[in-house]
Amino acid sequence: GDTTPDVDSPELLHGFYSAIQSLIATDSLLAYHDRSDGGLFVTLAEMAFAGNVGIKAQLNSLPPDLIASVFNEELGGVIQIRSSAYAHVLAQFEAAGLGDYVHTIGHLSDTGDLELWQGSTLVYSSPVHELKIAWWQTSYQLQRLRDNPMCADQELALVSEVDDPGITPLLSFDPNAVLVPVAANTQRPAVAILREQGVNSHIEMAAAFDTAGFDTIDVHMSDLLHGRFDLNDVKGLVACGGFSYGDVLGAGGGWAKSILYSNKLKDTFTQFFNRDDTFSLGVCNGCQMMSHLKSLIPGALHWPSFERNLSEQYEARVATVEVYESPSLFFVDMVGSRLPIAVAHGEGRVQFESQQQMMDAKVALGYVDNKGNMTERYPLNPNGSEHGITGLCSEDGRVTIMMPHPERVFRTVTNSWHPPEWGDRGPWLRMFENARVWVG
């Protein structure tokens, strides 16, 4: 209608918030979605999309005006709960003064359809995947005009798939096993968390290495240039992600040239890379930067450059990568694992100088689809890299570069979703612990 949704009772809104927080604290909610954008119908549809399931909704307890009941955007939400938690959930809302506002409206359906019922009358039914295609159309049409239309078509095709299982991790190790017990008197080898103007994620990177038993040191490029820090004092060197110098000279290009065109810095990095007791990691912008330094890194001449994403856009997503057999010290005992990971880059598409160079490359990570197959398909492969390649290492495994961000998801709470059995330790923590084990 023509009535603007508003807050009739701040007290009820406060009670609703408190009840939801109590249910979260007791792990009583499986899902929640407010109805402020599109009303109950859109809310149910979007929840069905997220779970890739059908829903049978019974609207008998709502006002008989179907349009008003399913499309009004007044304050409210839909929660999904276990049937065993029903009494507990109702009690929480009763305690918050909301008992008269709760409606039990249905359950999941095996049919894959969104059904709306009023009593014994089926008033609406549609396959969830068809609704999802319709829901996606505005984004698709805009994307097709703005981005690479081939990528837009590939994403719409993925959205249209009925049997996509979604994020499906597979681990070759136990993420809850602690490789490096960190006691107060345990020696903590030093690792330099290297950054430059425009770099980010250095705090998360430091946290990951600190958790794995390292002493992390914030090192800016100016510290090396002006002699305030010496790489001889550390075992590890990590170049973090971001947009050094705004990527105006290409992704990581300006950062790399500040080293290559300075005799002092070039000698400093060459000496570090040639020490056989050191390791190095480049992530995202740091990956791009280190690829420009491959002439200084023993066994890295096969590395590619990293070019503009095939989608022609910056991609910030969750993708799945598989860990491949490689000499990388970071991925010992992780081979065969398929792990969700954060990606955030505009120039991540690998570009080899020749087919032979690609064949010689020590590939450590590659994008895979939700069924575990290598993929070049957007957005499962967010940048269009050939054979899904997104992580490589030097021939001796001491230097690894990768476009995705493991430091952003080394704790399970920072993942968009994770299996409950993972606990607090995300599986990506293992690669940082592997580095600690390698140092000894």
What are its keywords?
440 residues, alpha/beta, 9-stranded mixed beta sheet, 4-stranded mixed beta sheet, 13 helices, 17 strands, 31% helix
Uncertain parts? none
Number of discrete helical segments: 13
Structural class: alpha/beta
| Rounded mean pLDDT score | 95
Shape: elongated
Please outline the major beta sheet.
9 strands, mixed
Report a brief summary of the structure.
It is built from 13 helices and 17 strands. With 440 residues, it is of the alpha/beta class.
Describe it for me?
The chain has helices spanning 10-25, 39-51, 66-71, 86-95, 128-146, 149-160, 202-211, 221-225, 253-260, 263-274, 285-292, 355-360, 429-439; strands at 31-34, 54-58, 77-80, 106-109, 113-118, 121-127, 190-195, 215-220, 236-239, 279-283, 305-307, 315-323, 338-345, 349-351, 362-367, 389-393, 399-402. By secondary structure, it is an alpha/beta fold. Strand 16 (389-393) and strand 17 form a beta hairpin. Helix 1 (10-25) runs antiparallel to helix 4. The chain is elongated, with a radius of gyration of 26 Å.
Topology:
Elements (H helix, E strand, L loop, with lengths): L9 H16 L5 E4 L4 H13 L2 E5 L7 H6 L5 E4 L5 H10 L10 E4 L3 E6 L2 E7 H19 L2 H12 L29 E6 L6 H10 L3 E6 H5 L10 E4 L13 H8 L2 H12 L4 E5 L1 H8 L12 E3 L7 E9 L14 E8 L3 E3 L3 H6 L1 E6 L21 E5 L5 E4 L26 H11 L1
Parallel strand pairs: 2-5, 7-8, 7-9, 9-10, 10-17
Antiparallel strand pairs: 1-3, 2-4, 5-6, 11-14, 12-13, 12-15, 15-16, 16-17
Helix pairs in contact: 1-4, 2-5, 5-6, 9-11
